[in-house]
Amino acid sequence: YLSTQITSLSKKTVCFAMFLDEITLRTLESEGQKMDSSGFIGIWKIILIKNMPYNDMRRVGKIPKFLAHRLFPSSRFSIWLDSKLRLQNDPILILEYFLWRHGYEYAISNHYDRHCVWEEVAQNKRLNKFNHTIIDQQFEFYQADGLTKFNPSDPNKLLPSYVPEGSFIVREHTPMSNLFSCLWFNEVDRFTPRDQLSFAYTYLKLRRMNPEKPFRLNMFKDCERRSIAKLFHHRSEERRSSPQLTR
Q1: 154: containing domain
Q2: The CATH number of the domain where 12 resides is what?
Q3: What's the pLDDT tens digit per position in 152-167?
Q4: Distance CA 132, CA 156 (A)
């Protein structure tokens, strides 16, 4: 964020929280970005994470990503931003555009390239993103529980894509939004931290098991995400001895 992009209203009503591990914090401090006496770096309140529940930092990062309603129980809305992104707009304007304008409670973009879980599985294995055997177990389980290939020509499809770009999530902390987030986290905990593999299964099963309860999800085009969030690549392993928590 640049301070000029934040309105006075947002500065009064929005909590900007950054989750860091000790290695990341030390790296920032070595570059001259030190916490003040109140625990802030700029507008960001630094939350130092200790006693990690997982050894895999990718999995640890899913806790604040999916469970903001548990970490901040008094909050009504949240915007998740991966550490590789910089938001270019005021957060209240983002809530208005992605949620309030059309009455949505959860907003996430589709993937810029892939739309079928079959494609995402193949890509994860091709790039060795996780253990292939566990990916296969997860995928086989989802197929046995009813997951089918994405059909873009289906007029009754519940989602415009089965693969999200999960680096930017906007949501209201409603009962259905919270339930979906918890169920999605359960899949990450049970199988792999590659949350793009479990998004469609989680959403479709939630809708199937709760047909009488509407869940107002806005899956918008990825070009909209790119227009409001600038991408910065993660630090290289040569400069860092450990991955960032919020990867």
Answers
A1: 3-231
A2: 3.90.550
A3: 999 999 999 999 999 9
A4: 33
Q: How many residues does the chain have?
A: 247
The answer to whether residue 245 sits within a structural domain is no
What count of other Cβ atoms lies within 10 Å of the Cβ of residue 57?
19
Q: In the numeric block, which tokens belong to residue 21?
A: 């591990």
pLDDT of residue 4: 61
* Sole residue written with tokens 């709760």: 210
Global pTM reads 0.91
Beta strands 44-48; 17-20: pairing state:
parallel
Phi-psi region of 51 (alpha: psi -120 to 50; beta: other; left: phi over 0): left
If phi > 0 it is left, if psi is from -120 to 50 it is alpha, else beta; for residue 97 that is: alpha
Q: Give the whole-angstrom CA distance, residue 17 versus residue 203.
A: 27
The residues near 230 (Cβ < 8 Å, ≥ 6 apart) are 85, 86, 88
